[in-house]
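Researcher: Quick test of sequence recovery. Tokens follow.
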């Protein structure tokens, strides 16, 4: 019975649990390999991370194994916190619009309608009265250099 080489095991290693556990197994296998380039090890480590963590790590374009491992642990913790806080906070904002086919979960609000337009009375005119002038008066004001509001 032949045991698979450390390189073969390393290339098949997948993150199944926490990043810390994956990193520990990866480092143990990497120590048993010889003549592998750092870039290969880095690509191998990143490619077998959980997809949501891998996408975050790839966005940083790190070239150091230490940096990549730290980023993976950071993003794992952030994703865990987001899931944990999102599921246990108990506070959820109601949707802006009702979802068709689903019963409303918010309180029923009785909305009052404004009275019809024909019942509304215009407000009493309390503004300053408007003084209207004829076109002849306007022409006379222009010739004298007066404004339209000035009294002769």
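Model:
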């Amino acid at each position: 019975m032949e045991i698979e080489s450390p390189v073969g095991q390393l290339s098949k290693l997948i993150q199944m649990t926490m990043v810390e556990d994956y990193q520990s197994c990866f480092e143990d296998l990497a120590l048993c390999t010889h003549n592998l380039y750092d870039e290969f090890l880095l690509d191998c480590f990143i490619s077998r991370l959980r997809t949501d963590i891998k996408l975050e790590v790839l966005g940083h374009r790190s070239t150091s194994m230490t940096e990549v491992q730290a980023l993976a642990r950071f993003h794992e913790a952030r994703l865990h916190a987001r899931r944990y806080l999102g599921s246990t906070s108990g506070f959820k904002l109601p949707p802006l619009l009702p979802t068709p086919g689903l019963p409303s979960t918010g309180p029923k609000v009785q909305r009052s309608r404004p009275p019809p337009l024909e019942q509304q009375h215009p407000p009493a005119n309390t503004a300053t009265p408007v003084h209207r002038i004829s076109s002849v008066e306007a022409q006379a004001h222009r010739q004298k250099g007066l404004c339209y509001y000035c009294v002769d």
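Residues 6-88 form one domain.
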